[in-house]
Amino acid sequence: MAQSSPKTSLEGKRIAFVTANEGVEQAELADPWQAVKDAGGTPLLIAPKSGEVQAFRHLTPADTFTVDETTSEANADDLDAVVLPGGVANADQLRTDAPAVQLLRSMVDAGKPVAVICHGPWALIEAGVVSGRTITSWPSLETDLRNAGARWQDEQVVVDRQGPFVLVSSRKPDDIPAFNEQLVAVFAEA
Fold it and tell me: Which is the catalytic residue, given 119, 133, 171, 172?
């Protein structure tokens, strides 16, 4: 395990990875998960149903991951930050899960940082928390985000500190190294 500097240590922090039970892009779940662990944090997989999450590599089924808590069981008070991985099917399903949307609203209302990649912002749009924020995403979400009041940028990673919570966003799996670096740094500050 890589040693974290005190500045980027997530020791004692519980980081929620909120996904649907199917369709999450594996790299966007597994790589940030490992970055959180390497920084000393405790990642928790939160999904609408107990059991497992089926990850995908684009459209091909990949690994499965064990759910730690359901979205209806999770409590924002017990969590320090949230990661929303992408995957078209994942994000589309997640935004229709009322407990997931409520959990995200509760995290944001408490000022807890959010890191989101690819199609993950759909859940934030549903939660009504992107208006006035600067964000990036997979390019096909640009119109959705602008219509929800966000300022969209085509950048590898965007960190928006101009709101009630810090928002880290990236576009795609190729951006994961920069995404991980920023999410660990932002979560360590919280």
Answer: 119
